[in-house]
Design a protein that fits this description.
This protein has 388 residues and is α+β, with helices and mostly antiparallel strands. 43% of the residues lie in helices and 18% in strands. A five-stranded antiparallel beta sheet has the order 2-1-5-4-3, sandwiched between helices. A five-stranded antiparallel beta sheet has the order 7-6-12-11-10, with helices on both faces.
């Protein structure tokens, strides 16, 4: 990996812990592709409906410009994004699709109201990619190109291609932390308000900081422990090998593209803990110019959580009977407990669970719960809301 490419990758992962770092990351992507700008669109759940927003963008776009665009052209932007999602394949890789999907000719593009708006601010061609293929409405990365230039060329795509999986993973891991930052304007100093475990390791793997949930997990599960040398260890040889690989090799991150939850480390053979690793090179809250450590996000998937059951069922093509299992699974019930509640045989529930895992592409129940958490889950403690 070239030095400047590695530097960008590390900046991408720094944005997990520092939402303010997203703008300079997107600015660098824009500069290195000769683009006009970049936007990450998201769909926020509001009851039964979704609302299109653009929370992350490069510095060229002021918030009021994006608001104006969405006010005037949201229905057309939504239509374009639906086309991108429709043409996005089901494999794990992140695909950057160009606007020939929208219209096959420049004249066809110009015949739409929103492209006329975009041309008025110096934009014509666009490219976009779904960043999470479990829930395709979480985030969509979009690159806007100047009105006087063609679509992305082979060299520009060659630069973007290895960075897109890192963007996808960082965007996915940043969801709980952006929720935290939005409420407290901080991440590490407010991390006790998270329902997931958060731990900062230095370059040697020594714990620098941890939140209350991570400490609870350490006390509750034998598979998270500190070795005699002070390094964080997991309860299985495979888990430790996976953790070490991710800590020693930046290029090992992002291997699962638009399904980053597949990169999760299972802490022990019988545990419900899902451990995820992100490089952490610079963080204002740590106060060092070059930290060169790691951020560990650890989720106890046995704890009750909320998700949009209908969206989960639709996303994975579950039957009505299988969708009915999503809610008790989210409450942490075991298969025998679900069988008892639903007055079904355990063998029936086991078979339905096996089908759910197959349809969702999940290796086990822990990974499925982790995937469910990207369908409307709130990651802040209840008391954070009671104060309002």
């Amino acid at each position: 990996m070239k030095a400047n490419d590695l530097d960008l990758t590390l900046k991408i992962y720094d944005a997990v812990a520092d939402p303010a770092a997203w703008q300079p990351v997107l600015d660098e992507v824009v500069d290195r592709t000769g683009a006009h700008g970049s936007i990450v669109f998201e769909w926020h759940e509001e009851g039964p409906s979704r609302n299109l927003v653009a929370p992350l963008h490069s510095g060229r776009y002021p918030d009021n410009l994006l608001s104006s665009y969405l006010d005037k052209c949201a229905h057309l932007e939504e239509r374009d994004q639906d086309i991108v999602r429709k043409h996005t394949s089901n494999h794990d890789a992140v695909e950057l699709l160009d606007d020939t999907l929208i219209a096959s000719t420049p004249e066809g593009l110009r015949n739409t109201e929103h492209v006329k708006f975009l041309e008025s601010i110096g934009i014509f061609h666009r490219a976009a990619g779904v960043m999470n293929k479990d829930n395709r409405w979480i985030s969509l990365f979009s690159l806007q190109l100047g009105a006087g230039r063609p679509q992305l060329d082979a060299e520009e795509r060659a630069f973007l291609s290895p960075q897109l999986p890192h963007l996808a993973k960082a965007l996915d891991l940043s969801i709980p932390l952006r929720q935290l930052h939005q409420r407290y304007r901080a991440v590490l100093s407010a991390m006790d308000q998270l329902t997931i475990g958060l731990c900062v390791l230095d370059r040697r793997g020594l714990i620098v900081a941890r939140n209350e949930e991570f400490q609870r997990q350490q006390e509750s599960y034998r598979s998270i422990r500190v070795g005699t040398d002070g390094r964080l260890l997991l309860g299985s040889a495979d888990g430790n090998k996976h953790l070490t690989d991710l800590m020693e090799h930046v290029e090992r991150h992002g291997q699962f593209g638009a399904r980053p939850r597949k990169e999760s480390v299972i802490s022990g053979p019988s545990d419900a803990l899902c451990v995820e690793v992100s490089p952490l090179n610079n963080a204002d809250e740590i106060g060092t110019a070059s930290f060169d450590g790691f951020l560990i996000c650890s989720t106890d998937t046995s704890l009750p959580m909320h998700c949009n059951v209908e969206r989960v069922g639709s996303a994975f093509g579950l039957t009505k009977a299988e969708t009915a299992l999503v809610e008790p699974i989210s409450q942490g019930l075991t298969n025998p407990e679900i069988a008892d509640r639903r007055e079904r045989a355990v063998t029936t529930i086991n078979a339905q669970m096996k089908s759910i895992l197959s349809k969702s592409g999940c290796a086990n129940r822990t990974q499925f719960v982790r995937a469910m958490m990207r369908f409307g889950t709130q990651f802040l403690r209840d008391e954070a809301f009671k104060k309002e």
